[in-house]
Amino acid sequence: MELSRRELLTRTGQAAAVATAASTLTVGTAQAESGTRVKLTQGTNISVSRSRDGKWLAIDLITAIWVLPATGGEARKLTDELQDATLPSFGPGGQIAFQSYRDGNYHLYVIGLDGRGLRQLTQGRYDHREPAFSPDGKHLAFVSDRAGSYGVHLLELATGTITQLTGVPDEAAAPQWSRDGKRIIFTVGNAAVDTVTLDGKRERLVTAPTGTQLFGAAFGPGDQPGYTRMRPGQAELVLGTTAVVTGEDVFGFAPIWDGDSVLYTADGRIRSRANGSVKDIPFEATVPVRTNRRPHRTRNLTGGAVKGIAGPVVSSDGKIAFRALNALYVLSDGKATKLTDNRYFDSDPDFSPDGKKIVYASDRTGVAQLWVRDLASGEDEQYAPAPHAQTTPRFSPDGTKVAYLDQDGQVWITDRQARRQVTPTLFQPGRPTWSKDGGTVALAAVKPFSRRFREGTSQILSIDLTSGELKYTEPMPFRSIATRGDDGPVWSPDGRHIAFVVESVAWVVPVDAKGTFLGEPRQVTREVTDSLAWHGDDALVYLNNGRIRKSTLDGRVTTIRHGLTWRKPAKPERRVIRVGAYWDGEAHELQRNVDIVVENGTIREIRPHRGKADVDASELTAIPGLIDAHNHWHLRGRQWGARQGNVWLAYGITTVRSPGDPVYQMIETREALAAGTLTGPRFYATGEAVDGSRVYYNFMRPTLSRAQLDLELRRAHELGYDMIKTYVRLPVELQRAAVRRSRVPLSSHYLYPAANIGMDGMEHVGATNRLGYSHTITRQGKAYQDVVALFTASGMSVTPTLFQSRALYDNDKSLVTDERTRVLYPSWEYERYLADANAQGTRAGSSSRAILRGWVEFALKVHRGGGFVITGTDAPLDSPATATHQNLRALVEYGFTPREALITATRNPAKWLGLPLGAIKPGATADIAFVRGNPLADVKTAANVEQVMVGGVLHRVPDLLEPYRRQPSALTTTAALDPLPSAENKHWWHEPEWAERVCCDH
């Protein structure tokens, strides 16, 4: 049944956008390119293959296949940018096999040495990777996740027949053949080296020592295993048990052995080693880059109709509740009535079955807890308090229970007396929904394809509350629920249907009492659709680019008016601030004893002390407010609540930029900050990143076609995104289409071909990548001439997000123990942060000074080469606010001057945003941090913030802390019952986002 259903949907094109990206693509060899050209003489994380006659080498430089003479020389490009090709393997007759991401999944191709005869060998929705020609040229060994995890497979080239050699629970990688063609060697989970014969007989050859990882296995002399053994600060090419290459940045791809000589890649070069001597094989490759980055000025919001409608729900009598402008509202008969007072983070309302009450989450006690509001009397009472966060609540159909999530993604069910855990920890799940009989709860949850590559599809996870069974259901074959937030699943009141969003439009499917599909999903809307709620049993309410819309199941659409508007508050009064010193954002030395005159939120004058000052900061130094250019306000926004804005300000960060957030949570927060109903920094952001066929984070948009891309861009433009981020699994062709159609800057995790197709920036030094490794930074944290040259020539920004800066906590934990951190962090966040900091410098520490040094040296080369480095942290995956300062300290630790480091957090990101920020000079916006000390002499003093000004509005740090100093020290909580069997953790992917300590996730 599953296969016929998949075939049916594929053939009839029932997705919103019927044309897949693959159907619009063409294949061919490299075409002539125009524009500025950059000569590359080194390659970061390149692999190499040698032709059977020994005359030619193939390399995968910046995601293209190139060939050059075996003695070195000018490289010739075989594949175009759209092919996104890597890992070449020479076969007979000059044929080269490689992996390509052209159609949104990895597939195997072959091409001739002359660039002709390009042919695709595998198809479908599974990934096929890392091909290796057999010695007789009749087969390709490769790995694929087609069997439930990465296993070794054989492809018979004459017939196309695929045979599986290893399977679940393997996570195999990089197969290579023995000389006699009877065995295949490969790595398993970076922890072992195995071989398998063609009849499936396995043997383990190597197990990684503690603290090391193994990459790129191949058979060496005497059939000994050759491989790369890595630990932070060390990469060795090993033969058997002997390290034959040390002291080099070996890239970890399969070496090519010929007797006692070996060909490999390291230190940005192709190398040959024989008899103890090393020879570099030089190459030159010339590539085009676009240097005219688009001019852009970020639009500052001034007011208008409210578009930030977050989490709408509908009562049985047709009222609508939602969050906007940092308050809860109920909409009835065209009038929106405000329920809460903007003082705290009140979110995710849900109506009781009779419509007389709402349950919602509020952090008024310091952390998110459940509250119930009687709509007639206006009285609030706490509902079933717990020692953890309580978010995204939903009433049961009989009104006696509430399902909710905690801060770790566990689902709980509570009444007023007791609570019970019903799922294990889930990775960023969606909001729960109840079946009509109250016997099943369902929500969106990710199900990865393999452990090796974490992406998967966002599916419906149902919990049988009687049996304790967990069950995953695809909304449609190989497709994801749009986001794991408010895009479903949502059960209809009569229990007969479930609604969800796939590919940005709404679908409805008939179900039984347990949520089992009884038919095929049917498309209901054809416009951008977000945040579904049922309006009775025959209509859906949803958000469409800032409007509340209603659609009957037969497609009749109307707009529901709410009438809410907002405007920026009046400009603050004129103030004269007396400071002991200030840094204007450019000078090499502080200027001393001045008054800063601020009018209407703008710096009007800087003058010597004169007359009376309104603010005495004569013992402090004024510096431009810091800008964190990469964080995700709502990745844990419900758990942090209103305190998140306070912690940014308390550390002098007056502007933040998010390259990915749940769209309506982002819009609501952006409007609330601009309207002055929420305290915090300026907030520039985008909604969900535009992703491809598979997703991981809950705020990625799986985008499978040009038609759907149009919907995504329409949402972005109508909601006024400040930028667009394209994510890991989006094919190059759709990335290029986004560039051509976008009105705002774009960023991604890729340097090339992004530098040529017009992307404006790259996030992280070397981020999560569909390859599983980066072409901008090696596993040892180093970048080479190709990367630095492309950044400096193109003008693309790079946001390093120095996760490894945690390593500096081994000798300075002052940011961790600071009162601002202790008071403003939620307790569970602080406990994790403290434990992580205490672990640095020990065997349990997860960060490396050696890798951090490489990252900073890479950023420094780009910066001093005229490139564009902007500071960002990826908070809250790194610590909000304190990580900004830890990043600055890391930059200085390994080569930046304090001034250079501060410029990456002031002038440079202000230039990216196109705003008069990041400076203290007449005409600049009055965003100022007042610190004790001289940050140009000691960058650590930039964290010594005592006052901070945003647009002329002054905040004292004690005032930012005060609401959270006064919180009750303990709550009387409801009893915890024994967890249901469904709460047992049986799947490796059931974990919170903070559990994975890897570089550069977002």
TrEMBL record:
InterPro entries attached to this UniProt entry: 6-blade_b-propeller_TolB-like, Amidohydro-rel, Metal-dep_hydrolase_composite, Metal_Hydrolase, TAT_signal, WD40
Domain of life of the organism encoding this protein: Bacteria
Annotated ranges, domain Amidohydrolase-related: 622-953
Gene3D superfamilies referenced in this protein's UniProt entry, alphabetically: Amidohydrolase, Metal-dependent hydrolases, TolB, C-terminal domain, Urease, subunit C, domain 1
Family of this protein: Belongs to the TolB family.
Protein name per its UniProtKB record: Amidohydrolase
